[in-house]
Amino acid sequence: MNITYLQNCSLFQNIPHDIIEEILLEAEIKIYQPNEVINHKGDIPSALFIIDEGIASIFNEDILLAELPPLSMMGESIFADGHAVATIIAKTELKVIKINKEKFYSLSVKYPALVFNIFKTTFHRLGSSNETALAEARNRERKLELQVQQRTKELSETLEALTKINFELNETKTSLIETQKFRDQFMANMSHEIRTPMNAIVGLTNLLIKSDLNEQQAKYLDVIKKSGQNLLVIINDILDLSKIEAGKMELEQRPFPLRTTLESIKLILNIRAEEKNIFLKESIDEGVPDYVVGDETRFTQVITNLLGNAIKFTEKGGVTLKAELLNSIEEKASIKFSVIDTGIGIPQDKIDKIFESFSQASSDTTRKFGGTGLGLTISKQLVELHNSALEVASVPDVGSTFYFTVDFTIAEAPVVVESASDAESLDINDKIILLVEDNMFNQMVAVDSIKEIFPTIQIDVADNGEMALTMVNEKQYSLVFMDIQLPDMDGFQITREIRKMGYDQLRICAMTASVLKEQIDACYEAGMNDYMMKPFTPELLKEKLITNLS
Questions:
Q1: 437-462 confidence digits (pLDDT tens)
Q2: Residues 452 and 538 sit within 8 Å (Cβ to Cβ)
Q3: Domains in the chain with CATH codes
């Protein structure tokens, strides 16, 4: 097999020749005849497939979804034990490279770059499907809204049709509600399906970073970690857009280090600027306060989106982040934030379009630079939640300036108080943890991460709800980490059963891939004591362990 040719496969991008040769030694060549089924919808793929020669077709029922050319990957869902969402059939005689599940897992642990490549490919495919589904949901809403307008006009024109039109209006209203439910459910499913494999990727990365690594391995792992963080930002963008449009987004009001936050954002994005050989610099007025009251997460999201866009669309010159103190009266500071670039610029007749959801200045922009078209939409709406407006001044081929002004309340630097209730002082001799999790990779991440904090603590694992209920009856646990989506019954049902069995004092902490408030509320309603978002950081896990085991 031609190694140089195989390097064009997304799985082998940036993978050296000798590693590809090692991977191929673990693989086998398989030939499929035309119309032969490679993997059925609903089955867990037995292996990871790479098309060497021929074309494969992807079907959902009788509908052709796509055709995969040579060097395409198939069966990526083995990484999360996921079921295939479509059937794969050979269109022509098909020659594939087949790597079975166990061999791929051992290779991915040995070469983390493979994990990053396969997840990047999967995410791009999910992103394409998700954008199509969201666009369809929006089209349905627009059509239904037009129906409401038409029925309302008919109602005013003829009283004789009042009963009929009222009935139709009620049906249309119901359809609108169902559409909203469809979108909310879509968001919840997307959050779970993407965050679950990401939990394994981020968790394994955090564990590997703490092991003995050479310089190149540490560099690869750092790329995987940063890429995982970037993917989470994109996932959260889509969820944020849904929450903003539903009127469910609220800004926190707590002190945060403004100057440090700006410097940290610049430091993180400077790598991307260096890769393009452009400068990224900051200019912060001396009068800008160190601490202000506001929502650090959402403010960071706006600045990061604006700087990221500026870097993406700038090929020469660079990008400048400015924070100017316009005035300061007593405890209030009015600060203007500007992101200035020397990039491609925006034509005047396209400026309004760039703030629309899933839109960019032109189709050429999308093809050349990529992106979902959500960053500026969300940034604009988040700035409006700050009682401000995101504005832009731009000249094509000269550059653009995005700017907004926020009135912050000045805050004092918080006093750090050392807590006596930390991992070192906590007595764990008689404490046992039960982990209820069906995904093999997430089991490994959770167990190894807990052992990093409490090396001697006992941890039992249940793969499903029935096993969990049996184990709770047989042993006295101090804490249960409960996954929400399990094969036989969900985490809510298991928790209710545990409480019915009389274990009222047993601490139960949900481990959920959903960030929707409704599902978090459902955790408490089912009888859980706490929840932890996946993917979790080592710091968050430590906090949850100390809180629930104290």
A1: 988 878 888 899 899 889 889 999 99
A2: yes
A3: 3-110 (2.60.120.10), 114-245 (1.10.287.130), 254-410 (3.30.565.10), 432-549 (3.40.50.2300)
